[in-house]
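Query form — protein LYR motif-containing protein 5

QUESTION: What is the three-dimensional structure of this chain?
INPUT:
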Amino acid sequence: MKMANSLRGEVLNLYKNLLYLGRDYPKGADYFKRRLKSVFLKNKDVKDPEKIKELIGRGEFVMKELEALYFLRKYRAMKQRYYSDNNKTN
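ANSWER: The structure tokens for LYR motif-containing protein 5 are given below.
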């Protein structure tokens, strides 16, 4: 049972982290929240610890993808700001 409780904590942390990252989602935070909730609810009855670990791994991958998306978007905005200014002076 201890294993299940530690996995439960991991799942809850993953949910909270994804929810936090979803605030800046391009299609809107509400869209992201609804999708996130439906995916977690779809898997709520999974009991196999290995399957749960696999799903956690998939969620962590999604977190990394979101972070990369946001970083890229920020980078593009900065690049556009600086390079469009530089091009005007040349």
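ADDITIONAL NOTE: The mean pLDDT is 88.
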